[in-house]
Specification:
By secondary structure, this protein is mostly helical. The protein is built from four helices and no strands. The protein has one domain. The chain is globular and about 55 Å long.
């Protein structure tokens, strides 16, 4: 007997694997983007050595390539979701490296971004 649950296929092993791959790419891509931008910031604003700029540029190139490996073929959706992930990772980065602990509005905003990412990327579509 066929499963009549409306979104049964959404919870298949194959979809869970694709979702894990997608989330991993978001994490690595977000860290490459923020790390690259941070290194450029350190070079330009704080007089760090030029190799900071080179490494930052390499990370930003990596960030530009990684979204192409996302399972979704929709460019706009992928980049919109990266925007939400960027918000969350930026707050965590600032907390770790700059000591800027997120406050309640930061946490609420990040939670809303994460909900948006999940809807944009993973809501079942026909």
């Amino acid at each position: 007997m066929e499963d009549q649950t409306p979104n049964a296929a959404f919870f298949s092993i194959a979809n869970l694997v694709l979702t894990a791959k997608s989330l991993s790419l978001f994490l690595v891509g977000g860290l490459a983007e923020i790390g690259g931008g941070y290194l450029m910031w350190q070079w330009m604003r704080h007089g760090k050595p030029f190799w900071y700029a080179i490494l930052g540029a390499v990370l930003l190139i990596v960030y530009g390539v990684l979204p192409n490996f996302q399972p979704s073929p929709a460019f706009g959706r992928v980049y919109a979701a990266y925007g939400g992930i960027f918000v969350i990772l930026s707050l965590l980065w600032a907390w770790k490296f700059d000591g800027a602990k997120p406050d309640r509005p930061d946490i609420w905003g990040a939670a809303l971004c994460l909900i948006g990412v999940c809807i944009i990327m993973y809501y079942p579509r026909r």
